[in-house]
Amino acid sequence: MDASMINKIQKASDYASQPERATFNNLTVEFHGANSNHVVCLDRDGWSCSCAGFRAYEICPHIMALEILFKPLLKRRPVPYAPGQNIVSDVEKANRYSQETDRIRINSFDCHFEGYNKNHQVTYNEGVWTSTASFFAQRGVCSHTMALEKILKGFVQPVRAQPVA
Ligand SMILES: [Zn+2]
Q1: From CA 93, how far away is CA 45, in angstroms rounded?
Q2: Containing domain of residue 104, as a range?
Q3: CA of 18 to the centre of ligand 1 (A)
Q4: How close is the Cα of 57 to the center of ligand 1, in Å?
Q5: Distance 48 CA to ligand 1 centre (A)
Q6: Distance 64 CA to ligand 1 centre (A)
Q7: Is residue 148 in a domain?
């Protein structure tokens, strides 16, 4: 392996211990709930979920579980509890779901990444990664994608490095 790649791998490992450098602008998650599957989305207007709980209360255990799991990458206040919501039950479910991570699969995200030198945009869509880092343009992988791959391990498909030309 060449020195520049070793350097990026080292940097990715540093970045992975600082997940707060990354911020989700958009996120779409497939969530396998206890009874059925749901799609949870985050965008500039906030969270939404396809479940009945969200339709009734604009908050649900799926969103609450993602707030627990991805806290450093969100940089937003948790969705407030709603009148009539079964808070005890929903908190219990959210805590359980946040442990049962095989329920959760990220379909896509768009992420702002504060690098040591420059900020970058990293996107993920059904296993396809992009990054604005110049190293990524050459090699199909960079310290930012590798760091996010570590941070989001189990929720995303790994970045595939390009063979050295
Ligand atoms: Zn939901």
Answers
A1: 25
A2: 1-159
A3: 28
A4: 10
A5: 8
A6: 9
A7: yes
Tens-place pLDDT, residues 141-155: 999 999 999 999 999
What is the rounded CA–CA span in Å between residue 4 and residue 7? 5
Structural domains of the chain, count = 1
Residue-wise pLDDT for 88-116, tens only, equals 999 999 999 999 999 999 999 999 999 99
CA of 7 to the centre of ligand 1 (A): 41
Find tokens 């989700």 and name the residue.
24
> 87-99 vs 61-69: helix axis angle to the nearest 10?
50
Residue 127 lies in a domain: yes
Task: Say if 164 falls within a structural domain.
Answer: no
Alpha carbon of 157 to ligand 1 centroid (Å):
23
Q: How far is the CA of 62 from the centre of ligand 1 (A)?
A: 4
